[in-house]
Write a structure and sequence with these properties.
single chain; about 290 residues; five-stranded parallel sheet; alpha/beta
Length: about 290
């Protein structure tokens, strides 16, 4: 797909590096489990473009795998796999109502997803949705009527992800300060009290956590090629999992420096501290870092 303003497409770096093999992914998940990791978000691009992925997650029932997907590759076979792997949670992307979703994702996408929702619900799958919050769709997707419609389709988990303007010329879509404040109060408190669902806002308020949680302080990002990066919105790295363990990668100079400077990363007027302070991140990157 070619969704407007997609961060994964905007920050894709062409190269010759191969993606992690199923065997290396298995090792990575085992290393993460041994380090105490209990949640691994699988995202893309489109993670279901790697059909062997569900053959790897089956071996780690103690880890929760929310899999962020456009939903178009979910069929009866994958639904059956989800039914056997209750720790793998499909999280299907929407932009709001049909018009809003099709406008960003392509004509007809919403109607195709309606049948997917019905299939997952019929199979008793625990699933949810991920909604990119923008200044334009905020009122719609946080309204009681919209949330009630999602729950009626069988969704029990709703991620609200603040839009990050990785594509030049889209800054007008960033939430207003008032909307960002409501994201923390209305979504995580009011909706959770009113409805039988789990509501998660991301990236959340860094000030509440004493600074940015990226770079291994709370989470870390691994690219398809195995580059260990501070977060999806900071695609720089000085360590790769093709040649070292996750534990070794987490001790990299770049990640350590960002963790040590986390108190400088809390001014989040656009929703992501590392993105807003990308000048600081770039200043930490050394020319001899192998993956930057």
């Amino acid at each position: 797909m070619h969704c407007h303003g997609c961060y994964a497409k905007a920050q894709h770096r062409p190269g010759s590096a191969a993606e992690l093999s199923p065997d290396r992914m298995t090792e990575l998940f085992r290393e993460a489990r041994n380090l105490g990791v209990s949640i691994i978000l699988l995202a893309g691009g489109e993670p279901l473009m790697r059909p062997e992925l569900l053959g790897v997650t089956v071996g780690f029932p103690e880890i929760i795998f929310p899999i962020f997907t456009n939903g178009l590759l979910i069929d009866q076979e994958k639904t059956a796999a989800f039914a056997k792997q209750r720790h793998v949670v499909p999280v299907i992307s929407l932009e709001g109502v049909e018009e809003q979703t099709d406008d960003r994702r392509g004509k007809g996408v919403y109607q195709r997803l309606e049948s997917t929702f019905a299939m997952l619900r019929k199979a008793g799958i625990f699933f949810g949705t991920s909604i990119t919050l923008t200044r334009e769709n905020f009122d719609t997707v946080t309204s009681d009527g919209f949330v009630q419609r999602l729950l009626s389709k069988g969704m029990q988990l709703i991620f609200y992800v603040e839009y990050i303007p990785v594509q030049e010329g889209t800054e007008h879509l960033v939430l207003t300060e008032a909307q960002r404040t409501l994201t923390q109060t209305t979504l995580t408190q009011s909706l959770s009290r009113k409805y039988p669902g789990l509501f998660i806002a991301f990236p959340g308020d860094e000030k509440q956590y004493g600074g940015c949680l990226a770079a291994g302080r709370g989470f870390v990002h691994v690219s398809p090629e195995g580059h260990v990066e501070p977060c999806p919105f900071a695609p720089v790295s000085d360590s790769g999992l093709q040649g070292m363990s996750l534990k070794e990668a987490l001790q990299s100079d770049l990640l350590r420096i960002i963790r040590e400077n986390s108190d400088e990363l809390h001014d989040t007027s656009g929703g992501c501290a590392l993105w807003n302070r990308r000048d600081l991140v770039q200043s930490l990157v050394k020319k001899d870092m192998p993956y930057c």
